[in-house]
Amino acid sequence: MAVEKRTIKRRVAGRKAATKGRPRPRAKAAPQRALTPQEVRRMIREKAYEIYVRRGRAHGRDRGDWFEAERIVESTRP
């Protein structure tokens, strides 16, 4: 068992040394699919609620929270 562990450690160390200095190939990003209007609305609704909670759950600023959430979601969309 001890011999096996040493052999495995050598193999791993050898692989690390063999790839040292060479750039790793990057994984290709999956193509982005377009979000449906329902998904966008859900994202805005969740962000508006997050803003409402962060503000201390004070009532009366629901439209302002919604507009801010729209701005945030639209700025983060690809």
Description:
The protein is mostly helical and 78 residues long. It has a domain at 35-78. Helix content is 65%, strand content 0%. The chain contains three helices and no strands. It has helices at residues 2-19, 37-54, 62-76. The chain is elongated and about 65 Å long. The termini are far apart. The mean pLDDT is 81.
Helix fraction by DSSP (H/I, runs of at least 4): 55-70%
DSSP, total strands? 0
Q: Round the Cα radius of gyration to an integer and report it.
A: 25 Å
Which stretches of 5+ consecutive residues score pLDDT under 50? none
C-alpha end-to-end distance:
53 Å
Give the H and E element order: HHH
Structural class: mainly alpha
Shape: elongated
Mean pLDDT across every amino acid position = 81
Sheet with the most strands, sense and barrel status: none
The helix count comes to 3
- β-strand amount: under 5%
Write the layout of secondary structure elements.
Layout: H1 2-19, H2 37-54, H3 62-76
Notable characteristics:
78 residues, mainly alpha, 0% strand
Write a brief caption for the model.
The chain is an all-alpha fold.
